[in-house]
Design brief:
alpha+beta, two-stranded antiparallel ribbon, globular
Length: about 60
């Protein structure tokens, strides 16, 4: 798998959306906003993103300045 690509996968049977972002992109994001018809928003902050990561070394890399 190429880690430098942005990819969105929709898995309707599992009711999952998978988003692959390169690490440098993920490091530069402060907020992710998910919308339905660009109206109803779900806002996920950088802190939420980092806290969701199961891998401590990845969390540390993303929090590094």
């Amino acid at each position: 798998m190429n880690d430098d690509i942005v990819q969105f996968d929709y898995l309707p049977e599992e009711k999952i959306v998978k988003i692959n972002l390169p690490e440098e992109v993920l490091k530069s994001i402060d907020t992710i906003i998910i919308t339905k018809h660009f109206k109803d928003e779900i806002i996920i902050s950088r802190e939420d993103i980092v806290n969701m990561l199961p891998n401590k070394s990845l969390r540390d890399r993303l929090c590094a300045p």
